[in-house]
Design brief:
By secondary structure, the chain is mainly α. The chain has a single domain, classed as Orthogonal Bundle (Arc Repressor Mutant, subunit A). It contains three helices and no strands. The longest helix has 15 residues. The radius of gyration is 10 Å and the shape is globular.
């Protein structure tokens, strides 16, 4: 089970499942949808804020490089 605070695990899953998406240009609305659609993700929208999405995006950028 992955939660919003598992930014590195989320980033790795996003990189594996969406390698064609550039994490530097994705908006937070789309990023939230991608995270919530991950198979192992089991948390709702309530814990997701801008800081959480920013941490996920930064981790994904690092995984992408």
């Amino acid at each position: 089970m992955i939660c919003w605070t598992d930014s590195l695990e989320i980033a790795i899953s996003l990189e594996e499942s969406h390698p064609s998406i550039n994490p530097k240009t994705i908006n937070f609305v789309d990023l939230r949808q991608l995270v919530m659609s991950l198979d192992d993700f089991e948390e709702g929208n309530s814990q997701c804020g801008e800081r959480v999405l920013e941490a996920i995006q930064m981790a994904w950028i690092e995984e992408n490089e």
